[in-house]
Amino acid sequence: MRIVAGVYQIRLPFPQSVPGYTNVYVVEGEKGNILIDCGWDWPGALWAFREGMRNDSLKFQDINWIVITHTHPDHYGLAGKLKELCGARVAMHRLEAELANSRYETSAVLLNEMSEELKKNGVPQDELTDMRDASLWMQKFVSSCQPEIILDEGDKISNGTFEFEVLRTPGHSQGHICLYEPTKKWLFSGDHVLFQTMPHIGLHPQSEDNPLEDYLKSLNNLEAMKTNFIFPGHGPVFNSLKLRTAEILQHHDQRRKNILKVLDGGMKTAYQIAVEIPWKDRSKAGKFNELTSLDRRLAILHVMAHLKLLDSEGELGRIEQEGSYVYLKKS
After folding, report:
1. Contact at 8 Å (CB) between 87 and 61?
2. pTM of structure
3. Which residues contact 268 (CB under 8 A, 6 or more apart)?
4. Side-chain half-sphere exposure of 139, counting CA atoms within 13 A
């Protein structure tokens, strides 16, 4: 549907009856259209994209650029096929381009690294395989491709009507970008800022050394910008960036307090901490053992990101004990 003059939103469904949609955006311009993100590679998403284009009288051949905010499958999966259909050039941050191949084409090394990280952070042997392999099903919904355009912080993308500034916003993914249109004060935020859910921030083998610190810094940088509309990768378009930023910061502050409270009881692994703190899955609040294997893995990686930040701030220490990392509160 048409959101504002020149911007259309198409909602592409997730595969395998997984609830949720990816918002993709077509931005019209005098020199061609820009598609921002592209959803999963499966027939339902491709059909929804075609119908969305038809309903808004848009044309495949008018899409000249496909800009990927990050290479998670729900934002990147259809890139290869849409590139062929539209004849468009794909653009993404240089770090995402470097990581895409190891994530989707040669993933065995990444799986081994994930297994080692989970093991070192206390995941029991009988849960390790299920957690390691919990995202393997996603690979068949990705038609990966290498970009023709490599982006970096401060680069510009113009279609003759609108000019976007590339903002690197790491945390959710190492090379995650947002696009900012300074004249209209539009922010296309990918998964960096969402209105209804909290973006996942985890210490992943493909993340940088301190992803939560990176995320909070880039979030604070965005908050200072003037925005009229925020176009997120999931959920509704909104215009209250400062309010939403405050809610996200409060969420992470509460998670920090929960982790430190658990450590009041003595040394713990990331797994043990994750078991003891409250979680919310896609529908309700619950306990760690009520989550799916994938959500349990995400929960542990998220705790690891918080522990890394707390360690860097001197709040706790990490030691290795019997092959696992355990954390001790310093005060």
Report:
1. yes
2. 0.94
3. 122, 262, 276, 326, 327
4. 15
Structural domains in the chain, CATH included, are: 2-105+137-248 (3.60.15.10)
Q: What is the mean pLDDT of the chain?
A: 93
| Segment of 50-64, 97-111, 257-271 carrying the highest mean pLDDT | 257-271
How remote is the C-alpha of 306 from its chain's centroid? 17
Look at the alpha carbons of 99, 190, 202, 219 in this order and tell me if their dihedral is positive or negative: positive
Contact 164, 158 (CB under 8 A): yes
What is the Cβ-side half-sphere exposure of residue 8, based on CA atoms within 13 angstroms?
20
Angle at 217 between CA 191 and CA 209, to 5 degrees: 85
Retrieve residue 289's tokens: 């053992």
Task: Tell me how far apart the alpha carbons of residues 138 and 231 are, in angstroms, rounded to a whole number.
Answer: 25
CA angle 324, 103, 41 (to 5 degrees): 135
The DSSP call for residue 315 is S
Distance between CA atoms of 159 and 85, rounded to whole angstroms?
19
What's the burial of 125, exposed, middle or buried (CB within 10 Å: 0-12/13-18/19+)? exposed
Dihedrals phi, psi of 110, to nearest 5 degrees? -65, -40
* Residues listed for the chain: 331
**Model confidence pLDDT, tens digit, residues 111-168:** 999 999 999 999 999 999 999 999 999 999 999 899 999 999 999 999 999 999 999 9
Kind of pairing between the strands at 324-329 and 316-321 = antiparallel
DSSP string spanning 213-237? Answer: HHHHHHHHHHHTS--SEEEESSS--
In contact, 86 and 26? CB cutoff 8 Å: no
How far the first Cα of the chain sits from its last, in Å, is 54
Burial class (CB in 10 A: 0-12, 13-18, 19+), 204: buried
How do residues 70-90 score in pLDDT, each as one tens digit? 999 999 999 999 999 999 999
pLDDT for the residue numbered 285: 58
